[in-house]
Request: fold
Amino acid sequence: FFSGIILAISALFNDTGGLAGNSSYTGAYLIFSFFIGGILLFVVRNVWRKILVSIGLIIILVIPFVIGARGAFGGLLAGILVAFFIYLALSGKKIIRVTGVTLLILSLVLTAFVGISLIQPTSRIHSEFEKAAGNSRFIFWKIALEGIKERPLLGWGPENYSVVYAKYFDPTILEPGEAREVSVDKPHNMVLEQFVSGGFIGGMLFLLFLILFFILPLYFYRKKIFSKMELALFTGLFFAYFLQDLIIFDTVITYMTLFVLFGIFTGTTLIFTQKEKIKTISGLKPIARTVHAIVCILLFIFSWIFFVHLPSKKAKGIYTLVSRKTAEKDFSVVASISPMGNGRDVGIIGERMVKSYQENIDTIKQDPRLIAQAHTDINSFLTEADKLTEAAPNDYALWLACAQLESFDMTSTGNFEDKAISRALSYIDRARELSPNDPRVYLVYGQIFAYQKEFAKAHDYLMKAYNLDPKIPVLKEYLDKFEKLFGTKL
Reply:
């Protein structure tokens, strides 16, 4: 609860969500903090402690709204209402109990109605959500459904939504307008993500796991382990968590709180059902306790170094690289810090480089020193990317970025040698194999064949890109240039 207060306050001083680094992650954690705080409010007896907890609850409730964590704030409000209705439904007075049950049923019906309306393109709720958060999520969800249709039973494997996203890429996400996430590895819906990863089997197991969080508090209430207030608040917590999970994805920060609670619940079940069978750590012999402690410490040290410290150090190195303007970038040093996520990490660097060069192309072309520096940086990057052929074969965003960077290098240096052309083609061939519906792939093909003065072939590829989505301005610009230069001869 107090860590939630600290996280909430930190978000006021950082527009990326405070210590969690993202407003949505912060909001997800605060859902757990708020309802745990609510339980504390009814457990503590001291008046000053109640006042302190109440102040903390207000801070935690307000912050998701302030930082724009819409899913978490909406989930919190819905969870509070559900908790209140459940509390009424457990009342000893019949009229209050009937009122509570009625309100609970109505709230569940309303939730279902809102959910169905959300995915209906013609509904007002859909339109309002699109205005507030853009239509990217609807695109992500549609692509996820395509992936589920293709592999319904066992899915695509953990962390493979990016493969599905590439294969069923929707070009409309490249259209001008509001800022959008073009390259993603999550569908921003935890239920859909589990069905993509594990198919029907994995998805249903995930839903059953979530259902346990609603069943266990009820079980504890019936066994008189939980009061009705605790049952109401825990149910409200998981209802809020489930709602926000429909528009975001789980991270370490939510897995941590989720599994701690699950451990407490299952441990409580064992304690109250098998008291005579349980052997605690304190009941072991001294040598066994010592071994147990050493193993736990070693596991902690190993996990901290390889799963926290080194990836964090690598993330800092990536930030340093992408923030440099002209200094030489040593990509191999950053990649060697930790092997975790190398393909995606290098791909992110590549995407940032592409964006930076595209935004500053005129400035770079006018300065020989900047051209030379860009050439050095691009070749250093591509050398590192080439090492990931086996490690990241399915990361289309990485190979697309490689092709775009090689194309930029040829344009800025005027070097259109066969070796450079061949290298660019090898990258873009991989990208097209993984994502045949991305217009940017065919734009790069068009540029490469234009460099080789194969203008008819270049025009054909640009037309392929244009036909995928004619609303992307750069494609029209290229085709207008061809029309101006060649007329109808092509």
Notes: The mean pLDDT is 87. The radius of gyration is 27 Å. Residues 368 and 413 are 9 Å apart (CA to CA). The first helix runs from residue 2 to 12.
